[in-house]
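Question (not urgent): is this output format expected?
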Amino acid sequence: MSQISKELKLAVLIDADNVPYSNVKGMMEEITKYGTPTTKRIYADWTRPNANGWKNVLLEHAITPIQQYSYTTGKNSSDSALIIDAMDLLCSGKLDGFCIVSSDSDFTRLAIRLRESGMKVIGIGEQKTPKPFISACDRFIFIEVLDGATKKKPSKKIQESETKKETEKASIKSNNKIQKPLNKIDEATIELIESTIEDIADDAGWAFLGDIGNMIVKKKPEFDPRNYGFVKLTPMMKSMTDILEIDERESEKKGIKYVYVKLKYS
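Got this back:
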């Protein structure tokens, strides 16, 4: 799937209360695929013990912590601080988009408002994120499919674990698959792919894979081949040869191929 755009100037706003700190490296690497994070802020009540895990990773990734005390028990005041800052940044006119890192549906209206103002909005959160927030974003990425989204090993096994991960990572990439997919390619996913191909296919029934990926994300912001166990969209499509035909066409540039897809019954 093609990226939303290159060199977008992005504001990364992280709700520390609703995402795990262990995934920050994978999150920041993912964000750079869509643009340059010119502003990186994280919101929490840093006096609370549950925020301690984040403190160790902020300097490494140059993320600015924003202190927000909880004025009332049971209320998340960090949400309000993040929203206010987002609107201030929007009015500055220096950004092309926002990356909101949270699994909280309270940011649904913020995402809608930012898009109404012409901003690209990328959401990152856990699979439990409510559907309204996911749908309000241009693109939504589940933390569980990012690098580093694994449970921490006991300290005495850290070195052994890291070596094993690197070996597995190389094997995974060579097979164009990832382990433990979040979802199966169900009937709804197949219907989404089929309808998208029909929408953009030429008279002969062929559709360019890049256009297919972009259109699917517009219809379903959380769509990601990694959710189904595939590193890229191409191997995912090639796994569906019972309903799809694949045509890899040579481009004018040596070594580059354009992938086209066609429904077998078209």
